Amino acid sequence: MIAFGPVPSRRLGYSLGINNIPAKYCTYSCVYCQVGRTTHMTIDRQEFYPVDQILAEVGQKVAEVAEAGKRIDYLTLVPDGEPTLDINLGKVIGGLKQFEIPVAVISNASLIDRLDVQEEIIQADWVSLKVDSVDERVWRKINRPHRRLSLPRILEGMFAFKQKFPGKLVTESMLVAGLNDSEKTTRQLCDFLLELQPSISYLSIPTRPPAEVEVTPPSPEALQEIIEICSEQAPFVDLLFEAEVGDFVSTGNLREDILSITAVHPLREEALRDMVSAVGGTWQVVEDLLTSGGISSIRYREERYFLRHFKDIRRKNVEPVP
Ligand code: SF4
Questions:
Q1: What is the whole-number distance in angstroms between the Cα of residue 219 and the centre of ligand 1?
Q2: Residues 316, 221 contacting (CB under 8 angstroms)
Q3: Is 322 part of any domain?
Q4: Do residues 86 and 197 share a domain?
């Protein structure tokens, strides 16, 4: 299926996803990738689906959503691989304009030093570029890039693109324990972001089963330190890891519900309080989980977030990658 959703997204509202790359063609094989290890590692742009097919499938979805009386805020290129590998990307984005809905592209930035890629995604309204680390050694470990890619060229490409892009540029950085969660790495990343000046820099953590079983988010203490460094150095940094619980369906066991939802997404205190009161529970359940170590809490900009201990999740849900 090329078009899917729309799914509610904190960054983009109701986003209709467009999967213009088959799994799993990518320029990276990130240790935390939720699609699994990269089976087709390439930096060669190519055609995967005809442009007409992509536009027809999106058109059909757009019509169905309109008929159901629902709205779409963004048409988002967010495939099971790297969207800029699609040699027809410019034509696809140009073609999507007919629907008169803003277009977003979520890219790992690995090909952003290429002029053709810059000229194509410049047509989008919103572009997210990945930057997990600006330290070459860390970048190699976390993103496991194609051997012909160069981090300095990518970082320069991001600056060049920022200069000419009239839309909204955001960055996204995934924080992984033991890889990019040290004070030094965080300060280097913040210095780069400060120079780049994107609209927002989102920080996230691997909360769903990642490609590599040993991948875990930073500890609550390390996260707290990262948040403090970033808030002080780069005020446009934001956390992308809280969930809303609007569609929360209770299983009747509040303790288990809290453990399962915080395993996928850390929750803001307000959202967690709403969830507890929606099922007639008491806050004591949360206090008991904190005391027993089932969940932890961290603070960010006057807000408290609750997250599950990842090691616990890993034991239960993730089988090792063969
Ligand atoms: S860039 Fe995205 S799709 Fe590619 S390996 Fe990394 S997380 Fe997965």
A1: 23
A2: no
A3: no
A4: yes
